[in-house]
Structure to design on (321 residues):
């Protein structure tokens, strides 16, 4: 009788935690929309309604791009995890969207690591953490490559005022400091997400190369899709900008926004601040850029998190063998 009572209490508190995660996610979404210091929600609704961009054709295309954005992310997760444990696309779908909801209001999506790991029994969890780290590094690698190229084009094309003397000083300082940092890291117990660099290096070197290459390819496809979606929304607002010029700014924006630490729910604000500056150089008005970023956020994070909330509520801990 005591065992049954204890089990029921555990189930009650476990259900309460799941409900709290979902309520917390919706509360932060609400706060971001209603109390966004960058863009008043009523102004946003009025501006979007005035532009009348959500025709049936436009809406279907936007949802189509959102679908494939997350399709490639989910497929990437399935491929990476299948190197240690075969999972179905349905399982990968549940884990990806459920962890998105659970990590929505955590700094730099740190909660995603624990949320995905908890789907597996204890002897798999450390490797799942490393796989999640690997997946994020692959996506960040694509963001960095495209971002650096875009930022170089942006600086030279729009003649951004940069002190080349200070830039050379900074470069020389970096050349001197980086070897010292590498040496210091090797001599200390430096960790990333709780794992030593030696362990991470060994894990990556032993990871199936075919899966890595395929996951990197999917990361690139995903990047091209959501960057095109950003450009398409700009076009719907009537902006006159070529795809090449837009990509220069969009890739620069994603790079700069990615390297700024943030609570994930405020990601839209950070991207807004960076984008206002970058697109401002090209003469675009603030409300068009902020509205574009808000729509991107609603489509690619809020909408999937609504589906993810279902999986959070219905989540059950895996049974240990």
């Amino acid at each position: 009788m005591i065992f049954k009572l204890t089990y029921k209490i555990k189930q009650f508190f476990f259900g309460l935690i799941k409900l709290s995660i979902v309520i917390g996610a919706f509360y932060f979404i609400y706060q971001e929309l209603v109390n966004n210091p960058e863009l008043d929600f009523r102004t946003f609704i009025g501006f979007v309604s005035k532009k009348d961009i959500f025709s049936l054709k436009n809406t279907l295309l936007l949802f189509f791009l959102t679908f494939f954005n997350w399709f490639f992310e989910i497929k990437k997760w399935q491929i990476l995890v299948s190197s240690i444990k075969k999972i179905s696309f349905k399982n990968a779908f549940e884990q990806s969207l459920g962890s998105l909801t659970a990590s929505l209001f955590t700094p730099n999506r740190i909660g995603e690591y624990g949320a995905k790991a908890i789907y597996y029994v204890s002897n798999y969890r450390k490797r799942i953490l490393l796989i999640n780290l690997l997946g994020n590094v692959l996506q960040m690698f694509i963001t960095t490559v495209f971002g650096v190229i875009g930022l170089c084009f942006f600086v030279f094309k729009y003649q951004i005022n940069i002190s080349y003397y200070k830039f050379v000083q900074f470069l020389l300082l970096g050349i001197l400091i980086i070897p010292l940092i590498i040496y210091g890291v090797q001599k200390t117990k430096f960790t990333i997400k709780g794992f030593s660099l030696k362990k991470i290096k060994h894990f990556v070197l032993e990871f199936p190369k075919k899966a890595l290459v395929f996951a990197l390819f999917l990361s690139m496809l995903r990047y091209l899709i959501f960057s095109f979606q950003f450009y398409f929304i700009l076009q719907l607002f009537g902006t006159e900008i070529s795809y090449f010029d837009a990509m220069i700014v969009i890739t620069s924006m994603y790079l700069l926004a990615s390297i700024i630490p943030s609570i994930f729910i405020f990601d839209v604000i950070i991207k807004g601040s960076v984008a206002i500056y970058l697109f401002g150089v090209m003469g675009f008005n603030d409300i068009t850029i902020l509205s574009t970023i808000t729509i991107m956020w609603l489509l690619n994070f809020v909408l999937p998190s609504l589906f993810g909330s279902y999986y959070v509520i219905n989540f059950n801990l895996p049974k240990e063998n």
Q: What stands out?
A: The CA atoms of residues 173 and 297 lie 38 Å apart. The longest strand covers residues 191-192. Residues 2-159+209-313 form one domain.
